UniProtKB/TrEMBL annotation:
Superkingdom in the source lineage: Bacteria
Signal peptide: none
Family: Belongs to the NadC/ModD family.
Gene Ontology CC annotation, any one: cytoplasm
Domain Quinolinate phosphoribosyl transferase C-terminal: start-end pairs: 107-260
Protein name according to UniProt: Putative pyrophosphorylase ModD
GO molecular function, one term: nicotinate-nucleotide diphosphorylase (carboxylating) activity
One record GO biological process: NAD+ biosynthetic process
Annotated PANTHER family: NICOTINATE-NUCLEOTIDE PYROPHOSPHORYLASE [CARBOXYLATING], PYROPHOSPHORYLASE MODD-RELATED
Upper taxonomic lineage: Bacteria, Pseudomonadati, Pseudomonadota, Alphaproteobacteria, Rhodospirillales
Amino acid sequence: MTTILSDAALDALLAQDVPYGDLTTDSLGIAARPARMSFAARGAMVLAGTEEAARLVEKAGGSILRVEASGTAMGAGAVFLEVDGPAGSLHRAWKVAQTLVEYASGIATRARRIVEAAPGVTVACTRKNFPGSKDLSVKAVQAGGAVMHRLGLSETLLVFPEHRAFLAEPPETWIAGLRRKAPEKKIVVEVGTVEEAVAFAQAGADVIQLEKLPPDAARAVIEATRGLTPPPAVAPAGGVTEANAAAYAAAGCRLLITSAPFFGQPADVKVVLGPL
């Protein structure tokens, strides 16, 4: 993968952490000393953001010796980034690069676990990433083998109960209206019960998004709608994790929608920085 964060964005990250120089390194008089820095996985993890981390080092004045690509699975102790350069440059990039990789790799690792728990099923992550972190979060999701459910409100039709509260027409009417206005888009409707799911499928929804319904409810919806032409995609959402992904797959779901990769511990990265 290439970097998804621009040089301007990376410059801003460095400026946040080192706005007026590195007081400790500069005061010790070691900034010009030749140095080397390595990043290694403390435990098994899927990498994400390594290209951005390497570019941060370059922006700070270091040189890249080796970097593993985002999406690479690493075992405990494996080194994935090695750099050298002046000690001042490496100290300047150190924590920003480490923290970026840790958070992004945490997302990628959790996404990969869900993907591996349900082979052959598409795992799609929602837009519920931390505000301001979308670019890197999307890259991390993809590095883990998942896809994005929707990048934002501008490119998908997803009708929530909060939308339907304003509609007086029957679902057949507003679903047909959506199809006229956006004929290239799938119409997704979120529901909270099996009965709602069947009703909106019969009204013409392309995708039925099940909000926090268990696998047995998903199976019931699939069985009740498989005779429709075409049958809708039935996609569990809300509460989908690596612990229940296999159960949803066994119920017949071929699309799982989840926010779980965005929430959890960062990956743990060990950094060694010292003189050459």
